[in-house]
């Protein structure tokens, strides 16, 4: 807050203190005024769709924000932050000017909490507004004819749409929000888009092998776009933790596509290895995406249900290095007890070896070593390295 603001506050307090006979009520007056202002800030936030029309069109609760709305929301965040700080300073100044016996009772924390709530609500409104902007791209993704794609090319048009939306909004938000609030916004946005993209894959129809390869390329492109958001907003605070979070969330979509790419005879093992927390219902949906008929799915599902519990890694006791021996003390080596291999342990070892084999095969799918289609995919990536521009090159050379 500037000196002019502080002087204005003190002048206002002195002026009101002169008018009020009961000086201890001065705090109540300011609290009442500030709470009214809280309501004014809430009223300026864009609202979600309501009513019969919104319910009928599936837009009930959806928040639509224009570029102007996004700027206003940022101004509301900054105003609420200023008021939060000012309320604390008001409490200090009021305590100095009223009767000392009432000074300890001056407390503006309730009003400050309300301004904090305004900030949170405003930032979540920004997130929901961007989520709504992505609706068209998510629908477009499900309408791509993934079953009939003949070759892998550059990133799909819906990916370009996602990039365009973020390129329009993020620089403005980064310039108007403080690093703390911009980071909060980014974390919430990533927590929304990552899982949403993953679930959107399940909404697609039949996905062929080439279609899955193209979608895997698109997924990597979307991940790159999301990772570039801090740079786009010209804010680097918390970028490392944000990047780690985005990579973790988008890796789930990559794993799902690698399962879809796996051969039918190993799809169950690949699913358990790459998506150990997956459900039988999701696995059945994957079989649908692969284009398997219900009759062909039956045997696979029966085998999957027999081995439903995911393989868990055994607990390994960490090896603690002994302290270094000194000249006067010698540390005797601790004998290692002989370990007998029981049938159950042998089975577990075999299971883990099988899991490692599945993971290696799945990784090969991601690298493009399994199919002719992926050889084409690799050829495109190599060609992209020699290009000086274009979205495909940016994907592999960020």
From TrEMBL:
InterPro entries in UniProt: Vps53, Vps53_C, Vps53_C_sf
Source organism, top-level taxon: Eukaryota
GO annotation, cellular component aspect: cytosol; GARP complex
GO biological process, one term: retrograde transport, endosome to Golgi
Vps53 C-terminal domain span: 214-292
PANTHER family linked to this entry: VACUOLAR PROTEIN SORTING-ASSOCIATED PROTEIN 53 HOMOLOG, VACUOLAR SORTING PROTEIN 53
Protein name, UniProt field: Vps53 C-terminal domain-containing protein
Source organism (scientific name): Eleusine coracana subsp. coracana
The encoding gene: ga08582
